Amino acid sequence: MSDRIELKKAKKLKGRIIPPPDKSISHRAIMLAAIAKGKSIVKDFLTAEDPIGTMNAFRKLGIKIEEVRSQKSEVRSKNSELSTQNSKLVIHGKGIHGLKEPEDIIDCGNSGTTVRLLSGILAGNPFFSVLTGDNSLKQRPMARVINPLKEMGAEISARDSDKYLPIAIKGRKLKAIDYTMPVASAQVKSCLMLAGLYADGITTITEPQKSRDHTERMLKSMGADIETDGLKVRVKGLGGPGGKELNPVDITVPADFSSAAFFIVAALLVESSDVMIKNVGINPTRTGLLDVLRSMGAEIRLLNTRDVSGEPVADIHCKGASGLRAVNITQENIPALIDEFPILCIAAAKADGITTIRGAEELRVKESDRIKAMASGLRKMGAEVEEFRDGLSIKGNARLKGAVIESYGDHRIAMAFSIAALVAGGTTKINGISAVNISFPGFYKMLKGLTK
Ligand code: S3P
User: Fold this and answer.
1) Ligand 1 atom index nearest CA of 189
2) 342 and 219 assigned to the same domain
């Protein structure tokens, strides 16, 4: 795939799609199945760069993982939905104490979830390991997991006074702690829950706001002693060798709401659109964007709501809507729409009035500085944007025009501006589109299928 694309205004988006499987759940399925005892089956695993990185990491840690890729490659399924290539995994878990020392450094690529969750597991395993990542991941903060892991007694150190990758870990028996997290982060919470499985006693983690709870759900279904109580999670250590083990799982991963979000907003913004987005995970810790779009006046229907492997799932129906209204987003809204910030900015540029998003400083330390990337790209397309330390404000009803946009190697920036291009005059050129392979290989084929 060439690393740039040229896109033009679309007349409508029409059709039925199944977005790729959930990235967060795919990562967790590998990690938890690897430390469970016995054979787990994961259907509809996301075959994208980030979770494939997690799979390779666990192979280096001695876990046998068999992968059966579906034959279809980003084509129409039997029911004529556009879908992406997924795979089925068979993971031969070796138990909580069954990982082996890796012979080499583990490269976590672009994936914050891989490195932060894996650190929690490795901190409790009695061997030496080193984790690194790509240039983006090397600039992202790691002290948020290193500091509490040290409090648990972990031997762990990292570059620049324990701030950045690479991280070196010499695992050992950990002690339970009572930790209050300064920022809402599912990666930090999950890291400490996983370390808590290797600790003596009960680890208690308190979040300032609720972040995604996929780890809690999956661990509970595997028989771990987990208690959630508002913003607190308590995890009981499994005990030393010969102690309790996690049960293997047989799960189906739902489609990723964060990937669906691009097409939800596209369908709303492009007049005459009618899109059915099927099998999407609607865990309430993830769907803040739906509430915000509804408060902007959008009509979005959830159909066929059901439970799939302990996660709520639905089909989402969206039609072109005129007259979205601006909205005021504050810190309380952020965790449940953390990954939808880029596409929300595009919706804001077309809404009536000035949208303000504050309390979003976490967006500066994602795969790119997403506040800066969205402000500069939107300005290039002709929108009026004011940037703050912790967010931005966007003047709506913008007459967007084609421009040359940088993805900064960030999958969600590339996809957000690809949707903006559908409502902009002229041609929008986006550089660095191979980044979409981090979470959504097949994005451009799906977009083409819906707009043709
Ligand atoms: C994720 C948590 C979030 C999110 C990321 C995936 C996870 O990060 O932005 O894309 O799978 O736990 P933070 O925990 O840093 O907020």
Assistant:
1) 14
2) no
Q: For residue 185, which atom of ligand 1 is closest to its CA?
A: 14
Same domain, 218 and 346: no
Catalytic residue, from 44, 315, 339, 410: name it: 339
Ligand 1 centre distance from Cα of residue 207 (Å):
14
211 and 295 housed in the same domain:
no
Q: Which of 257, 274, 351, 363 is nearest to 318 (CA)?
A: 274
pLDDT at residue 364 above 70?
A: yes
Q: Which atom of ligand 1 is nearest to the CA of 338?
A: 9
**Ligand 1 pocket by Cβ (under 6 Å):** 24, 112-113, 185-187, 190, 211-212, 338-339, 362
Same domain? For 234 and 244 the reply is yes
Q: Are residues 60 and 102 in the same domain?
A: yes
Report the CATH number that the domain containing residue 188 is assigned in CATH: 3.65.10.10
Check residue 74 and give its pLDDT: 47
Domain of residue 368 covers 4-19+254-451
| C-alpha torsion 12→431→437→282, nearest 10 | -50
Q: Which helix (H) or strand (E) holds 243?
A: none
Q: Nearest to residue 214, comparing CAs of 283, 287, 111, 278? A: 283
* 230 plus 258 within the same structural domain: no
Give the other-Cβ count within 10 Å of 300's Cβ: 18
Q: Phi, psi (5° rounding) for residue 189?
A: -55, -45
Note the pLDDT of residue 78. 56
Reply yes or no on whether the pLDDT at 296 is more than 50: yes
